[in-house]
Amino acid sequence: MKIRNFCIIAHIDHGKSTLADRMLASTGAVTEREAREQTLDDMDLERERGITIKASSVSVIHHYKGEDYMLNFIDTPGHVDFHYEVSRALQACEGAILIVDSAQGVEAQTVANAYLAIEADLEMIPVINKIDLPGARPEEIAIETEHVLGLPADECIFTSAKTGAGIPELLDAICERLPDPAPRKAGDDAPESDNDKTRALIFDAKYDDYRGVVVYFRLFSGKLKVGDKIRMMGTKRGFAVGELGKFKPKMERQKEPMEAGEVGYMVASIKTLADVNIGDTITLDNDPAEQALPGYQEPHPMVFCDFYPAGETQFDDLREAVTKLHVNDASFTYQPTNSEALGSGFRCGFLGMLHMDIIQERLEREGDVSLVQTAPTVTYEIALRNGEVIEITNPADLPDPSLIQEIREPMITAEIIVPNDSIGDMMKLCDQRRGLYQKQQFLSETRQILEYELPLAETIYDFYDKLKSITSGYGTMDYQLGEFKRDNLVKMDILVNGTKVDALSVIVHRDKAEYRGRVLLKRLKQEIDRHLFEIPLQAAIGGKIIARETIKSVGKNVTAKCYGGDVTRKRKLLEKQKKGKERMKRVGTVDIPQEAFMAVLDTGEEK
User: Fold this and answer.
1) Would you say 518 and 547 are in contact if contact means Cβ atoms under 8 Å apart?
2) Which of 127, 334, 407, 517 fits a disulfide with 489 by CB distance 3.0 to 4.6 angstroms?
């Protein structure tokens, strides 16, 4: 049986999951009764939001020209925050289906994913989807695809995943155009004998309470069967294969050995999460390969925030939830941290704001924990006067100002695709966020590509929302992390009731510090409830207070019980209350709600 391994890539909401559903139905992998929308999206979160978060693998059989073809394909996410999932999926394939919406055309993430596929040396099949829409322009979009990506317009396949039009032609093209699985060398110096030995690449894993860690793999060479003694080449741990199977799309156990080129899952009584690394190579213990397969580049987190246990959740519960989720999503990082105000927690790194939001929800749902989340920050490079350069991800870790020579912030190169009538407003937004104009490029008669260099810290919160608002939903953006650049940056501390709250500290541009401080204190005043004593809120740079707000105390009329009598009686009661308030202010604690930690992200711009 011939094998074709490929993945489905596209910009968000261009119809990847619907096309995957249609391919499953057309090949008989799911019956009409079992069919449902987003079949491969098995997380409730994916269904609620209508997006793909995790890449999903599936194997189907297609009959073409008298032969059966095993089609192993991976449905990948489309949002820029999940590009690590896409890059991992590409490593396990020889081909890719690139979907372009016939009404929207080529968008930012379409270009980014196409370049990822080209770098991975994959054969691409361009698909113009949603041809059933009233505003569809398939021929025009096919020409645009050729102009932007260099994929011939006459090779584009026109489909409608909703109605099923063009799906048989697409399945035939996959069998005809995509190459057979080829053995992959571990490196130029890898011995030829390794090509015959068992080598499988781990591209994903999931923790199961009953079976331990379930490993998802692609077999590049050799064979693998139940009972084989295997070794993880990275961790040097050995296991016995207890179960092998494929996704059809549900897990189906198989007794036959797995051949080179096949994709499947394995259960091998792997109990500890530290024994599995995504990107590791599986080989046989009695006849091991000498060199591991090239794995994956370590993901570079771009956004950081702290998670602390809240309510009845204990630190150990949070640690267990974070560790299990890390096995399933290796693109987020974590390390223990401690805060005077919030106790013990974890400093976590994410690929973007949506990724952070998804991880928080998955921890609360899958790990059954309650969290307090601090405001997201980015990594800063600190050049010290002694010549040393250090990196910090938390403003609270900034060294003493007398030791600092300069602070450098991470920059991104953003490619923003916008309609012609929104260019002026988009440029204004980029200028407000300290952006540096790079170049402008025509994409079509109605759209252009703007390229800006922007500080990452200015884009992580609401930049994408404002982009969508300015362009009425038609604008898209993709970005690449650039170098660190020095600027006039300072640390702004927030004092609540005279106590510095580390979790509310923020690094800002000096020119905007006073304005940001006033905006932040006004937001905090709205979010923090009134207490029985007066609460001063202050923003400070070093020892200098640059802004102040006061939360008034809850009023209580202590003189209400005085009916007549001398005025000194009332005065005594008021003095007694005043002393009590002062004592309460010294020993009382201020409850800071979750919303207050996110208030530091408010830039003060008009919504």
Assistant:
1) yes
2) 407
- The token duo for 134 is 């009233």
Name the residue among 47, 56, 55 with its Cα closest to residue 24: 56
Residue 403, pLDDT above cutoff 80: yes
Q: In the predicted model, is pLDDT for residue 49 greater than 70?
A: no
The model's pLDDT over 487-518, given as tens digits with 9 standing for 90+, comes to 888 888 888 888 887 777 888 888 888 888 88
* Distances 217 to 26, 72, 200, 272 between C-alpha atoms, Å: 25, 12, 6, 18
User: 199: which 2 tokens?
Assistant: 């080598």
Q: How much is the pTM?
A: 0.70
Decide if 581 contacts 532 (C-beta within 8 A).
yes
- Is residue 35 a contact partner of residue 177, using CB atoms and an 8 Å limit? no
Peptide bond into 249 cis (omega under 30): yes
Phi, psi of 456 (to 5 degrees): -60, -35
Q: Would you say how long the chain is, in residues?
A: 607
Strands (E) in 193-232, as ranges, are 199-208, 212-221, 229-232
Mean pLDDT of the 532-540 span: 84
Whether the Cβ atoms of residue 500 and residue 536 lie closer than 8 Å to each other: no
pLDDT of 51 strictly over 80: no
